[in-house]
Amino acid sequence: MRRLSTEAVRIAILALGVSSIAWGVASIALDPAEAAVTSIATRILLGEKFSAEQMSAVRHLLDTTPSTRVSSSTLDAIAVGRLGLLESDLTSREPQHIDSDRADAQRAVRIALTENPTNSFLWLAEYWLQVAQRNDASAALNLLQMSYWMGPNEAWIAIRRNPLALAAFPALSQDVTEEVVSEFVSLIRSGLYLDAANALAGPGWPIREKLLSRLVQVSESDRRGLARALEAKDLDGYTMLGFSENNERPF
Hints:
Helix content: 55-70%
Number of domains: 2
Order of helices and strands: HHHHHHHHHHHHH
Structural class: mainly alpha
Number of strands: 0
Radius of gyration: 19 Å
Number of helices: 13
């Protein structure tokens, strides 16, 4: 039951994030193509998986949807759709579309940012694209910093942003590193234990002592939630978080 409730929290946070940007669906009369792109982008942000045939249909939809004379919210949705295609390429390791989809995603994100420069998620997407192409590191870090400036407390973005930021931790300025650590703590407070455990056991492992030292700010129930998630990854979460072996485990 606890695992289900944790996943429900994650879905709720993602849904809240998607609804918070909303792309103006409720207030703008979209034509069918724009409405379809918005629907696809919403499903991508919620983590829905698509088959190869479905992704092919998404590519056709995006290719036939103009990037001019549409709302800025639709431009955001197009960018998310393009990013979804690229992520699908990388996951499936189908190289035939990677170069073209990467270029399309880069173009779509930049167009969307021009119209909506306060979109924290798009700044993060631009950072991810630059890092993937191994472009100038200092310029890419500025993009990550912009994402934090524009949306420092958005859990649905933090799920994606925190692991990327932890991977770049040694190169970040002191004020940004503080935001990264605080964001990690916020993941735990939000009940996103598996996401926090993945970040800690992955890119956050070299600075685990720094991350764990901040958990004095977190309630015991949340620390136990993180401990369970770490145990599921074959890490001794209870010992790492300072619980006695004699403490009754809540599962």
